[in-house]
Amino acid sequence: MARIINPQDLQAHLPKLISAKKQISHMAIDLTVHKIFRPRKCGQLDFGGSEFQPAEWKVLPPIKESADAAYGWWELSNDVYLIQFNETLQLGDRELGLIQAHPRLIETGCVLTPQLVKSLRQDVLLPLVAPKSGVRIKENARIAQLIVLELDEIPG
After folding, report:
1. 91 and 97 Cβ atoms separated by less than 8 Å
2. What one-character DSSP code corresponds to residue 27?
């Protein structure tokens, strides 16, 4: 069995929160977008892995709507992207994190692939699919939620 860890108990281990008041709820920690990547060159995958080549990805810069704007926007068309978060967190031996789409992201028509993680670092990238109509995402937008579980026993 497992229990959900109260996100308030993790706040001290989340040094890169933009606003703890807005990002920590009773069950989850809202994660904010730091960078968005778009595929540049296709990768390849085989059964054994000897011919594996990862895709090449390009960082998309957010565009500011005016010179005095504090934050920019990403204008995403119908495609697959990789999302990098601002927040970092190292989980304990008996802890497991589940990253899932923020409900508001789902309401924009986007799909964010859920992922189980042992840590949340800058190399954790999640696939995001933008809808046919496209989507605008502002820098630091809350786009995902992290739920941390404490496991009764470590699977082995």
Report:
1. yes
2. S
Buried b (16+ CB within 10 A) or exposed e, 95-116: bbbebbbbeebeebebebeeee
Fold type of domain 2-42+53-63+71-151: Deoxyuridine 5'-Triphosphate Nucleotidohydrolase; Chain A (2.70.40)
Q: Which residues pair with 32 in a beta bridge?
A: 142
Question: pLDDT, tens digit, for every residue of 67-123?
Answer: 999 999 999 999 999 999 999 998 999 999 999 999 999 999 999 999 999 999 888
Round to whole Å and give the CA distance between 130 and 80.
7
DSSP letter at 28 equals -
* pLDDT tens digits along 13-69: 888 889 989 999 989 999 999 999 999 999 999 999 999 999 999 999 999 999 999
Burial of 44 (0-12, 13-18, 19+ CB in 10 A): exposed
